[in-house]
Structures are given as C-alpha cells and as structure tokens.
C-alpha cells in the first residue's frame, strides 16, 4: 500500500511539475538566480526558464506571440501596453524600484557628479538604448534635468540592454550609466562606491517602477501564479533590497 501511495504521489508531482517561461528585464539578471533558488525551496519541482533582454523588445515579441508566461519589466509602461492590448491576465504591479548609478573603470573624480560628463577627456558615455530600455530613458531624463543633454548627447553610445551598458562602461566608454543593482553582483565586487561608481541623484529622473504581469497563456497556470506571488512576497523583497533595489 505504501508503494502505491508513493507511486501516486510521484505521479501527481509529475503532473503538476513543469517549466514556466519568464521574460526578465536585463537589470534583474544579477538577482534572478537568487530569486529562483529561494522560490525552488518551496517549489522544487518547478523549472523556471529565464530569457533576459530589453523590456521594449520583449513587448514586441509578446505582441507577436512569443510564448512567455510571466513578464518582469524594467518599467511599468511596457506591461501596461500589453495589458491595454488584452495580452495580460493580471494588472501590472510594481515588484521593485530601480535606480541609476554612474560607473567608470578609469579612476575619474566621480564626486563631480554629472558635471564630469562635460570634461574634454570624457569622449564616450554609455547608456542603454532609451527606445527599448527604461534605464536608458532615465539616463536621458537625468541629463536633461541637469541641463547637460546638449553637451552629452554627442558623446553617447547606446547599449542594447542595461547589462550591455555595464560592459560598455568598463570597456568602450570612459563612463557609463547602469542599473545600481548590477553593482551588488559578486562579479562586480571589485568596484567600490565613491571610487568606481556613484549613485545618480534620484531627483533628476522619474522613479523606475518595475512591473510584473502574468500573460494570458499562463492564466490558469498554478506554477506561474506561484512564482508571481513569490516575486511580490517578503522573501523576494529581501533579495531585491540586497541587490540595491527599493521595495514598497
């Protein structure tokens, strides 16, 4: 009898276990492994398949039928676009707030803040593409509010995502504007605050509210709902805070 019960349990487990496909904004790439590891402590049979990229490109792909179950965007605009088109089974909800940092490997005087960008020795400034990446939009907004955009614009080089902006900031440019969360990744521990990077004054750009939705194809997917609830729960919030995000 115990063998039969055990066999039924394993069968049920295999029926409800599966893979959920998640489109994740590139800035969350540094925290996503910790988030999945924590989620799997209580959902060990669920495989979370992650695709990383820019929120704008994901939005286009989802409109064109890309088979994602959950979309974790770098802002609220793109999830709202999908919801307005009837492609979401949940209303967009904020899961974390991101912030900008200015990074350089060139040992510059970062205490000058954005005014540093007008220095003649600053030839290239890396940001994420503002057309597809909310952190790029926030960077441009900061430059404009600091009355520096006209001077900085000729120096801008555009990365396809915020993670690529990190690479550009450390290689192809003298300075780059990145998601602050990336600096809390273990691989970035050699870069120190006030030496290699500084936070950008948050009053210079609109708060980066990052939104999550469950897409229609996963409307009745219990595993997708479990992951969605986890991301909005206290355990995930702690991980987001550990990676430099703000949470409500």
TrEMBL record:
List of residues binding molybdate: 55, 162
Q: Name one Pfam family in it.
A: SBP_bac_11
> Where does the UniProt annotation place the signal sequence?
1-25
**Keyword annotations:** Metal-binding, Molybdenum, Signal
Cross-referenced InterPro entries, in alphabetical order? AvModA-like_subst-bd, ModA, ModA/WtpA
In its UniProt record, a GO molecular function of this protein is: molybdate ion binding
Q: Which GO biological process entries does UniProt record here?
A: molybdate ion transport
Spell out the family assignment given in the record's similarity comment: Belongs to the bacterial solute-binding protein ModA family.
* Name recorded for this polypeptide: Molybdate-binding periplasmic protein
**Species assigned in the record:** Arcobacter porcinus
Gene transcribed to yield this protein? modA
């Amino acid at each position: 009898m115990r063998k039969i019960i055990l066999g039924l349990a394993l069968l049920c487990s295999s029926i409800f276990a599966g893979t959920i496909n998640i489109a994740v904004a590139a800035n969350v790439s540094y925290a996503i492994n910790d988030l999945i590891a924590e989620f799997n402590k209580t959902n060990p049979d669920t495989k979370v398949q992650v695709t990383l990229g820019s929120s704008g490109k994901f939005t286009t792909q989802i409109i064109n039928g890309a088979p994602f179950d959950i979309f974790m965007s770098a802002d609220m605009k793109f999830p709202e676009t999908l919801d307005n088109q009837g492609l979401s089974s949940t209303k967009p909800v904020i899961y974390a707030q991101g912030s900008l940092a200015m990074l350089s490997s060139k040992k510059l005087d970062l205490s000058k803040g954005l005014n540093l960008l007008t220095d003649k020795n600053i030839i290239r400034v890396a940001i994420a593409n503002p057309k597809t990446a909310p952190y790029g939009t926030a960077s441009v907004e900061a430059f404009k509010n600091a009355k520096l955009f006209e001077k900085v614009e000729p120096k801008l080089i555009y990365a396809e995502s915020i993670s690529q902006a990190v690479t550009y900031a450390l290689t192809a440019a003298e300075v780059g504007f990145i998601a602050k969360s990336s600096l809390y990744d273990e691989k970035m521990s050699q870069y120190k605050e006030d030496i290699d990077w500084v936070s950008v004054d948050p009053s210079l750009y609109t708060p980066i509210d990052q939104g999550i939705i469950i897409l229609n194809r996963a409307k009745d997917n219990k595993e997708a709902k479990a992951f969605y609830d986890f991301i909005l729960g206290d355990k995930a919030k702690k991980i987001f805070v550990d990676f430099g995000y703000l949470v409500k």
